[in-house]
């Protein structure tokens, strides 16, 4: 029990709650000398979900799907056009300052640090801005500096930090005031493999040791694979999928690939449906077949009828799975264009 009632949180375990939330933007566009067109862009449409305390949830979707708009509503920067939204029992747009004490936000593409100041000066400013009690500030800073390996960087001006160092600096800044929920918008964007691994290791610790609730927006599916047991996919402002990562494969009707090496170049093998040859390169052939079907009969048939030398089965690429899901379900959503008003 982490004192929900004392801190004014909801009692049913749902820490983030969205009920039929929508956000509509009015956009004016010049279409002629004196002509303006007013368009209504429905960035978030009838969106409902809950996130329990301590969950780490991946929030993914293609460009323009509505992810940032959702995060901005969750922080109170934007006010929903309709529906009901609560974080820790607070309506974000009405009580933005009170909520700020309980949330942390990291935007991978933007820094919240002061560009010309040494890193530690940004932390001192946040100490005051968030009115963090001295002892707590000191303890949190020590812990974050140690876990994110920031010691040698504290006196370096932010503009001189590498992208990976700056990202670690930003994550520490977002956590100095001990928020219960952390929104991460593309935290590994542009980072090299080692920096990505460091950020992911730290986020795993945060989840496992401190039970922080994390909503993670990313285009890097390894972030999701390594950190999230649950993933929500949004497209055209609507929730397309909510469940375990493994379930995405089914939702996307994913396929596995059987790669066979024959002892010589041959025409495409005669594969039993639904398997089919998708590529031939010299003696190597690639066959796609549904993930839900066993590879054994297909392998047996090819081994019996062709001069098989070697084979391997490749698991589906998660990015391709999501793309297929968009192709199937997204078309339906896309058939609802943004409302245009003359
Ligand atoms: N302030 C705004 N005014 C008008 N339209 C907006 C505004 N902010 C977002 N939109 C529109 O709302 C839709 C959703 O945008 P949003 O930025 O939430 O998507 P996203 O999923 O975060 O995309 P990305 O992955 O590219 O960051 C887009 O069509 C976008 O053009």
From TrEMBL:
It is a peripheral membrane protein. Residues 16-261 form the ABC transporter domain. Keywords: Antibiotic resistance, ATP-binding, Nucleotide-binding, Transport. PROSITE patterns: ABC_TRANSPORTER_2 (PS50893). Coiled coil: none annotated. It is found in: Cell membrane. Its main location: membrane. The keyword RNA-binding does not apply. One of its GO terms (molecular function) is ATP binding. This is ATP-binding cassette domain-containing protein.
